[in-house]
Design goal:
This is Glutathione S-transferase 6. The protein is an alpha+beta fold. 49% of the residues lie in helices and 16% in strands. The chain has four helices and four strands. Helix 1 runs parallel beside helix 3.
């Protein structure tokens, strides 16, 4: 199993933490800026993170996180547990989107 992302945290960090918490051995592949233009062509949807399992490659950070949490027994015991986890994950996505918007804002008064 390989987790492929850039050499920083951001969208792959939850997956890395899940793999560590679950004690799952994996290859943590870090793509540099100089490698990205070539690697991008190989990625589903032209984006990372991706999770490679055998010869299959899967994209989208939340889909990867959900898969790993289920596979590693970290997704709760009931459907209600899973629902509670999903709501926190989706809230985190909303926070992240707002933070990125604020970071990219050039107008200091709007930040």
């Amino acid at each position: 199993m390989k987790l492929i992302y850039f050499d920083f945290r951001a969208r792959a960090e939850v997956s890395r933490l899940l793999l560590a918490a679950g004690g799952r051995e994996h290859e943590d592949v870090r793509i540099s800026e100089s490698q990205w233009s070539e690697e991008k062509k190989k990625m589903p949807f032209g984006q990372v993170p991706v999770l490679q399992i055998g010869h299959r490659v899967f994209a989208q950070s939340v889909a990867i996180e959900t898969y790993l949490a289920r596979k590693l027994g970290l997704y709760g015991q009931t459907n209600i547990d899973g629902l509670m986890i999903d709501q926190v994950v989706q809230l985190n996505q909303e926070f992240r989107a707002k933070a990125i918007t604020a970071i990219k804002e050039q107008d200091i008064n709007r930040k």
